[in-house]
Amino acid sequence: MAVVPYLYFNGNCEEAMTTYARVFGGEITGIMRMGDMPQDPPLPDDVSKMVMNMLYTMPDGTRIMASDNWQGTSATTSNISLTVEFDSVEETKTAYDALIEGADIQEPFGPQFWTEAFAAFKDRFNIRWQLTGPYKQM
């Protein structure tokens, strides 16, 4: 069994997922467009090019799936945050720096009592993240 997050975007799914692949590594391992679905009548060109289903596989094998909501009604807030655990403070800071442009910062990058590096924010694609570095010894 595996839990696979499924993210929804308002027309910028491909941009968001390729950004995540660039920041975290891994690769886009599958993409289907809205226009790939049999439709009668055919979808308008702008909708046809949107992502119906996209699969991003992280270096450790974790999969994240995503789609554009062609009606443009995806939620802008959520009670779920994706957490990425890094092996070093430097890796954590690099990912943070790559994702904070246009982000809503809830907790700026820095040490916490449980970890050497932590940050919490909602990125410009409206996805909530928690980035954490090595945990401190208890």
Automatic annotation (TrEMBL):
It holds the Pfam family 3-dmu-9_3-mt. InterPro entries: Glyas_Bleomycin-R_OHBP_Dase (IPR029068), PhnB-like (IPR028973). Residues 3-132 form the PhnB-like domain. It comes from the Bacteria. This is VOC family protein. It comes from Marivivens donghaensis.
